[in-house]
Prior knowledge:
The chain is of the alpha/beta class. It folds into five domains: about 10-95, Orthogonal Bundle (DNA polymerase, domain 1), CATH 1.10.150; about 100-160, Orthogonal Bundle (DNA polymerase, domain 1), CATH 1.10.150; about 165-255, Beta Polymerase, domain 2 (2-Layer Sandwich); about 270-345, Beta Polymerase, domain 3, CATH 3.30.210; about 355-590, TIM Barrel. Helix content is about 45%, strand content about 15%. It contains 25 helices and 16 strands. Helix 14 (about 260-270) crosses helix 16 (about 320-325) and helix 21 runs parallel beside helix 22. About 45% of the residues are buried. The structure holds one DNA strand.
Amino acid sequence: xxxxxxxxxxxxxxxxxxxxxxxxxxxxxxxxxxYSRGARVIESRTEDLVALALEEGAKKKLTAIDxxxxxxxxxxxxxxxxxDIAEHDELLSRVPAGLMQVLDIPGLGPKTVRAMWQEMGVxxxxxxxxxxxxxxxxxxxxMGAKTIENIKEAMEFQARSGGxxxxxxxxxxxxxxxxxxRAVKGVKQLQFAGSLRRGRETIGDLDFLACxxxxxxxxxxxxxxxxxxxxLARGETKSSVRLKRDGLLIQADLRIVPASSFGAALMYFxxxxxxxxxxxxxxxxxxxxxxxxGLFPEDDEDTPPQSRGVKAVASKDEEAxxxxxxxxxxxxxxxxxxxxxxxxxxxxxxxxxxxIKAELHAHTTASDGRMSIEELAGAAKVRGFHTIAVTDHSxxxxxxxxxxxxxxxxxxxxxHEADGRVKGISILAGSEVDIxxxxxxxxxxxLLAALDIVVASPHSSLAQDPKAATKRLVSAIEHPLVHILxxxxxxxxxxxxxxxxxxxxxxxxxxxxxxxxxxNAHWKRLDLRDAHVRGALEAECLIAIDxxxxxxxxxxxxxxxxxxxxRGGLTPASCxxxxxxxxxxxxxxxxx
DNA sequence: GCCGTTTTCGGCCCGACTGTTTTCAGTCG
Length: 592
């Protein structure tokens, strides 16, 4: 892909890499942190920063972004103009590429990996295996038998586990563990935290937090529950295990805290790390100090306040801690970075699963769905929806049994017939129409106009270059008969990146043509993704959250779409699926 | 490298746990 079209994601990955390379060269750790934060900030922006870097006054615009200063701004501009960052190239030439994989092994940090490289000539996983096998690894400082054994196991774990786990896989597992542990005698409170509670699209490990009157029993239950392969740590308050269930291999941590500290601990364990750092910095400015036991007066003593019996200003619940820091409560989904940014989005109240009243993207046996029209309507009714849209695939999606025009006309009649017969829910005749690579749609306008609702989605040519993808999607968005742009980038987690259009152009087009952008709630898609939702809302776009239902269970993916929406700051008013029947149907008809 | 309701210099969150140590370094979140 030409670098002139590089997306923010690619730029972010360069800075993330630079941060790790710097770590391995033993650079200043604050610079390492700054690059790593810069990478996260870049990835979360929806405006095209490479394009921005070529504009008048670029440096000023870039440094206006929190986390981007002179240095990173100049590097972005350098990248935009010369298609290269000299420091990046220089680091790549100094540090062997394979060392990054060694750094990825759990338990191995920059200090150890650097020593392996400098002292033993390790340049990758194969070299590490070699010095373990021939025993020469023992020459490194602090490298005893136990540590070597742990490294071997961690390497095996890394090779067997597929990296981060999709939200939709991790959530049911965490809920099952949560239920089991809540049943242990003495447990007063127990809940999962971490990136799962924040609703991130992928999860690194499972974090559980508990209050109990019998800590020994809970610790024992945790370390011996079904699927525990290895106990990694078993301390007074913190235990870690490697868990294997349903073919999934994942690390799980349990932290036991006193009830009086539950809020502070939940906050700490929910993260993000960056959010915690921001809060702790903010606390210091208020002459307070924040840790997982509570918010305490800062007294410049060396030992932790809770160990000296100092009374906390706040600790029992999260709300009290935010409040004592002069902040509105920040919902977990908005805790990726600075709490102040979350503040603006929370005022009106984020969307919730119970707000959703319609499913507008569903397939039947007419194409690749498992349910008939009636079964689909019945399942939607059970969920309290007032409207279900039948949107089977169009002719180009041949593998999915896409309908040719004649079949679609017959299908429209069948849907309308069912709508007349089934009481208690409106059944709309629609289509998920393929957006062809040139931006044209799969049916002619006469046929599209006969549909109650049109969801236009890209399914093919998903490696198209960004400029062509932007043109393609904008053209579909601006088509007067299209209501919703379905899964806009076509990505599939974790492997398929999908299209990388200039999202800000999509947002502009969608806001201008009153077309809604879909958050596809399937956990393999979550497309729009969180950062895109935020950008779309800033551009005042309408959002649709749909489950892309193929079978009844798919309705249950709604919560993942909701979490993604919340991470983008979505409120009910901006989401068409929350509207009452009259308002929604009026909006749909406005495009007919 | 980033940042500033004292600061454009001098800071940069805080604690648990492990393993290898006779008092602590490294990693993690």
